[in-house]
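Weekly modeling sync, notes
Attendees: S.R. (lead), two postdocs, one rotation student

Agenda item 3: backlog of single-chain predictions. S.R. asked that every request posted to the team notebook include the full sequence so nobody has to chase files. The rotation student volunteered to paste the first one in as an example of the format we agreed on. Action items at the bottom.

Example entry:
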Amino acid sequence: MSYAKKSLIILAVGVLLFFLVYPVSFLPSFLNPPFRLGLDLLGGTHLVYKANLSNLAGQTVSEAMEGVRDVIERRVNTFGVSEPLVQVEGNDRLVVELAGIKDISEAIQLIGETPFLQFKEERPEQERDTILEAQAKEGRLNEDPYFLETALTGKYLTSSQVSFGDGVSGPQVTLDFNGEGAKIFEELTKKNIGKFIAIYLDGQPISVPVVQTVISDGKAVISGNFTTKEAKELAARLNAGALPVPISLISQQSVGASLGHDSLVKSLRAGLYGLIAVAVFMILFYRLSGLASVLALLIYTLIVLAIYKLIPVTLTLAGMAGFILSLGMAVDANVLIFARMREEIKAGKSLNGSFHEGFRRAWLSIRDSHVTTLLGALVLYLFTTSIVKGFALTLGIGVLISLFSAVTVTRSFLGAIIGPKLENKKWLF
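Predicted structure, as returned to the notebook:
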């Protein structure tokens, strides 16, 4: 296929991408998804929670915090929050950022609805009486005199559902534990036959059944004075994930939409000014080659923005910086090619020969610079927090497309321009 035909196809694709990137009213919504913006651009809520790690029940601190993070992330995702940021900070802090949720009370309710499920066994009578006596003298007031905490928590829960019957009036919530949880539950029931086991939800006892027999199938039942609606809500909340350790809110902050909009406008303005400055430089310094590179950069920008929309990538200020830096990489690739071409033209070669030789000689430098940048972006993405991850992701995508743009798009445009008629006008290059 000739370079001219390739160029026409690329331009046609560029027009389609423009309509995908730029909001157009006549397109259906599924063909025109919005950009996904982060908290610093869209506004939203920033919450910090502290986990109570006093009773880890056989878990390490990192396991408990990862469990809390996973559950909160799952819970938030069920509400369709745009790319929530949920990350562990330090030993016992959890940071939650919810872009687009301006109502802090709504965000707190959304997080707080995730239940903390515990199973507790009866204390020995002597121990119970000792604690009650101490409490009567106003000591150890916060200790539960009747039940002891066990290793069985919502961490081991795989599913819950509403059931009816079995001689119980009203709905029940059945629980299924994983293999490890089933073993713990079996041991717990084995040593407590004829005794009470209390089921606590968010620190409050909701069911205190008597153990009649050893339960080895990993199934438990919560029966209480539930309405059908309450039982369904409880089952849904448990399915969303029960916290392995309790958490409490210690900090809350709202990022206003106006501040986010201002940051977005400034970022876009910086990118536009940078693109215009690069275009002017390339055209003045490399003339027709520069014009081809400007067209290639416009196509490059449309491809990258379309990918950001379709994946989708959450755009933050750091992510915008990664995009602008990748734009610089795309320009750098073109500069390498045109500098090589200029050397070949000065050496007396034909335009067509200089064109092919310039791309051939520049390829190794372009490849090496892009691969090293990609490796850096990969390391940042794998071993850093999500703010830097956003930068690494946009940079990595941009560098990959830059490699394609330099080798395919710029080459096609420049090959379509170069011809016998311009052989005596090498000054245009």
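Discussion: group reviewed the output briefly. The two ends are 24 Å apart (CA to CA).
Action items: rotation student to repeat for the remaining queue; S.R. to check formatting next week.
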